[in-house]
Write a structure and sequence with these properties.
Layout (H helix, E strand, L loop, with lengths): L2 H18 L4 E4 L2 E5 H8 L2 E5 L4 E6 L2 E7 L4 E4 L2 E4 L5 E3 L2 E5 H12 L13 E6 L9 E2 L4 E2 H18 L3 E4 L9 H10 L4 E5 L13 E5 L30 H19 L3 E6 L3 H4 L5 E5 L6 H7 L2 H25 L24
Parallel strand pairs: 10-13, 10-14, 14-17, 15-16
Antiparallel strand pairs: 1-2, 2-9, 3-4, 4-5, 5-6, 6-7, 8-9, 11-12, 15-17
Helix pairs in contact: 3-6, 4-9, 6-9
The structure holds zinc ion.
Length: 356
C-alpha cells in the first residue's frame, strides 16, 4: 500500500476509534455496557447466537474469532482463554459487553487499526526476572528449586535471543539481589523501554498437579482484579489511571501475542489472561505484562523447569511473542516517506546564491 493511502486509512481509523466506531452505551448496574451486535457491526464482524447455551460466537467472515457467554467474564478470543474485567450480560436475546472490555480487549485483538495511535515500534525491551535476593518467590520443595533462579535463567536466555535479533535489552536485575516492584518499572522507564515483560512462575502449593500458562496485565481504571471475583473478594477497582493505563489496549495485544506463543510451545494447559493490580506494572510508561509460563509447584512442570531445554523453549516462546507484537505495531505505523535523493532531485532547481 502507498504510504499516503495508509496514512489516510490510519487517520480514518483513528477518527473512527474516537467516535464513530463507538457503539451506543447503556448502563447495567454500575457499569457502562455496549451491545455486541452494535460493536460487531462497527468492527465488520458477524454475530451467531448459540441459543441453547446462552452464548454467542463472533465471526470474521467464515472464521470464528470470539465466543462469549451470558454472566461469564471468561471468553474465547481466537482460541485463547481471556478473562474480561466485567461479566458479559445477555438481555432479551442481545449480548452486552462492558464498554471498557470492548475497547481494551475486543477492538485491539480483532481490529487493532481502530485503537488510535499505536505505541512506538519496539526497539528497547525491558525484561524483569521476578523476585531475587531474600525474595525467593515460589519454591518446589521436593525438587529444591526456587522461582527467582528460574526467572533469571529464562530472562538471560531471552536477552540473548532478543539481542541476536537486534533489539536493545535492559534487565531489571542480572544477578541475585532484592529489587522492589516499583523500581523495576522505573528501570524500564529510565531506559526508555518500548515494552516490558516480567517473568514469573506460578504456584498453587500444596497442589502439585496444576500446570499451565497464565498472562497478567493491569486492569483498566474502574475494573477489578481477577482474584477479587473469587468468593469473599472485594471490589478493588481504582478510580484513577495508573501510568500503565495509557496502554490498556496495547497491553492486551502484547498479552495475547505472548499467551499464544507460550501455549503453542509448552502445551501444558491454558490458565488464561487475567487482570491484576500488579505493582511491577503500575508505573510503566510503555506496554507491559507479566507472564507465568508454567507452575514451579507442579511435579511435572517443576521437573521440566529443571532442564535447560524447557527453559530454552520458554525463552524462545516469549521471544517469538515479542516479535509477533512488534509485527502488529509495525503494520500500524505508516511507512516513512523517502527523503528526496540528491541524485534524482530536479536539476532545474536554482541553487541558492551564497550569502556574501
Ligand atoms: Zn513470582
Amino acid at each position: 500500500m502507498r504510504p499516503a493511502a495508509f496514512v489516510f486509512l490510519l487517520a480514518s481509523a483513528c477518527l473512527a476509534a474516537t467516535g464513530a466506531a463507538e457503539p451506543g452505551v447503556i448502563r447495567i448496574g454500575a457499569v457502562d455496557y455496549v451491545s455486541v451486535d452494535d460493536g460487531a457491526d462497527r468492527l465488520g464482524l458477524r454475530v451467531v447466537p448459540l441459543v441453547a447455551q446462552s452464548a454467542m460466537i463472533l465471526k470474521d467472515g467464515p472464521r470464528p474469532v470470539a465466543r462469549l457467554a451470558d454472566h461469564s467474564r471468561e471468553i474465547d478470543l481466537k482460541g485463547l482463554r481471556v478473562f474480561l474485567g466485567d461479566p458479559v450480560i445477555a438481555r432479551g436475546g442481545t449480548f452486552y459487553v462492558s464498554r471498557i472490555d470492548y475497547q481494551s480487549h475486543l477492538v485491539p485483538r480483532l481490529r487493532p487499526v481502530l485503537c488510535g495511535p499505536p505505541p512506538r515500534q519496539p526497539r528497547v525491551i525491558a525484561i524483569d526476572p521476578g523476585h531475587g535476593g531474600t525474595d525467593h518467590g515460589a519454591e518446589n520443595r521436593a525438587l529444591g528449586t526456587m522461582e527467582k533462579t528460574c526467572t533469571l535463567d529464562v530472562s538471560l536466555r531471552l536477552k540473548r535471543l532478543l539481542e541476536g535479533a537486534g533489539y536493545a535489552v535492559v534487565l531489571t536485575r542480572d544477578s541475585d539481589f532484592d529489587l522492589p516492584k516499583a523500581v523495576r518499572s522505573e528501570i524500564a522507564n529510565r531506559a526508555n523501554a518500548d515494552l516490558f515483560v516480567s517473568v514469573h512462575f506460578n504456584s498453587l502449593y500444596p497442589n502439585t498437579k496444576t500446570t499451565g500458562a497464565e498472562v497478567l496485565s493491569f486492569p483498566a481504571r474502574s475494573q477489578r482484579s481477577a482474584d477479587s471475583w473469587s468468593p469473599g473478594g472485594n471490589d478493588n477497582a481504582e478510580t484513577k489511571d495508573a501510568p500503565v493505563n495509557a496502554f490498556d489496549a496495547w497491553n492486551t495485544v502484547l498479552a495475547g501475542a505472548l499467551h499464544r506463543r507460550i501455549l503453542d510451545a509448552l502445551h501444558d494447559g491454558d490458565r488464561g489472561e487475567k487482570l491484576e493490580h500488579l505493582g511491577v506494572l503500575r508505573g510503566l510508561k510503555c506496554p507491559g505484562v507479566l507472564v507465568e509460563p508454567a507452575f514451579i509447584s507442579s511435579d511435572a512442570e517443576g521437573a521440566k523447569l529443571g532442564t535447560p531445554e524447557f527453559r530454552n523453549a520458554i525463552a524462545a516462546a516469549v521471544f517469538a511473542g515479542i516479535q509477533d507484537y512488534a509485527e502488529v505495531i509495525k503494520a500500524l505505523h505508516p511507512a516513512p516517506v523517502p527523503a528526496p535523493d540528491a541524485a534524482t532531485a530536479p536539476r532545474s532547481q536554482p541553487s541558492r546564491p551564497a550569502v556574501p
